[in-house]
Design goal:
- The protein is mainly beta.
- Helices cover 14% and strands 41% of the residues.
- The chain contains three helices and 18 strands.
- Strands 10, 11, 14, 15 and 18 form a five-stranded antiparallel β-sheet that branches. Strands 5-4-8-9 form a four-stranded antiparallel β-sheet, with no helix packed on it.
- Strand 1 and strand 2 form a beta hairpin.
- The longest helix has 30 residues.
- About 8% of the residues have low confidence.
Length: 302
């Protein structure tokens, strides 16, 4: 009887221990409802691919510093203003204003501005150089402008001026501007509106008043020519005067001995444009426009 009780107690203890072993996992799960952290290890191949692979922008040479750096570089420029002028001496120049219309700096050593001229009539002539230069002087920032002024030899019959802005590295033409109808009177070979206003006789000398109706300072050659009846004409003096825009000026008094009443004094003017190698029939001085008087009478023409 005693042995049976002992066996019964041992059996009960074993059952209790077995029950505890079954219930312990349930207690552990109820104590924490969160999952433990897990780490995913990349393979060696995935690590190599991550180092080699680049974004589309990086493959094109861009950077990923900020959103502004993602814009593509755009080089562009234009000639915003072009004019022709003269210095106080009468020398001609053209002046162009260049503006950087791109989004990057322009290297001044890579940009050239060049002028070309063509004489009237255009169908019978060709474009020839009218000075040019690499603009230099450092870089031009975006939206920044620079004025380029260059002297040029304007011929008597120059009727158009073309100025070209070009990238000398890529040979890309950024912009071109053309000024047309530069000759005042092609039929008279007069580039500018310059006229003899008055011829004054003061025995034995004469002088002429010349009016410049243009917006340029001009150099004018005044020539006298004396004619008597059927005798050959003779020279009656030459002088040169410089006339400011929309102004008039007198030539010097020119002494003319041996003149008789009734002699005809003709006065011609040539506008000296200062052009060289113009291949024009009047030696780079525009054809004379003349007026005349009968000695001893003076005369005003307008």
């Amino acid at each position: 009887m005693k042995n049976q009780n002992t066996i019964k107690r041992i059996t009960q203890k074993l059952l209790f221990v077995a029950l505890l072993l079954l219930l312990l996992p349930c207690f552990a799960f109820g104590a924490s409802t969160s999952l433990p952290d897990t780490k995913v290890k990349a393979t060696a191949k995935q690590l190599r691919d991550a180092k080699v692979k680049k974004s589309p922008l990086q493959r094109q040479g861009g950077t990923l510093v900020n959103h502004q750096d993602t814009k593509p570089e755009f080089r562009s420029a234009e000639i915003t203003h072009l004019l022709i002028g003269t210095e106080s001496s009468g020398k001609w120049y053209w002046e162009a204003t260049i503006k950087n219309t791109g989004n990057v700096e322009l290297d001044g050593q890579h940009v050239i501005i060049h002028g070309y001229k063509i004489s009237y009539p255009q169908a019978q002539n060709s474009w020839t150089p009218a000075s040019g230069k690499v603009i230099g002087q450092g870089n031009i920032l975006p939206n920044q402008s620079r004025v380029i002024k260059l002297r040029w030899n304007r011929c008597c019959m120059t009727d158009q001026l073309k100025v070209e802005l070009r990238n000398i590295v890529t040979n890309k033409i950024f912009d071109t501007k053309i000024l047309t109808s530069l000759v005042y009177s092609p039929s008279q070979y007069m580039p500018l509106d310059v006229r003899v206003k008055r011829i004054t006789w003061n025995n034995p000398s004469w002088r002429a008043a010349i009016k410049n109706f243009s917006n340029y300072t001009v150099k004018v050659i005044v020539e006298g020519n004396l004619r008597r009846g059927s005798f050959p004409s003779t020279t009656a003096g030459v002088s040169t005067i410089t006339i400011q825009p929309n102004s008039e000026a007198n030539s010097i008094w020119l002494y003319t001995p041996g003149v008789q009443n009734g002699d005809i004094l003709g006065v011609r003017i040539r506008v000296d444009m200062g052009g060289n190698n113009c291949n024009e029939p009047f030696n780079s001085k525009c054809r004379a426009k003349g007026e005349g008087i009968v000695i001893p009478n003076s005369y005003t023409y307008f």
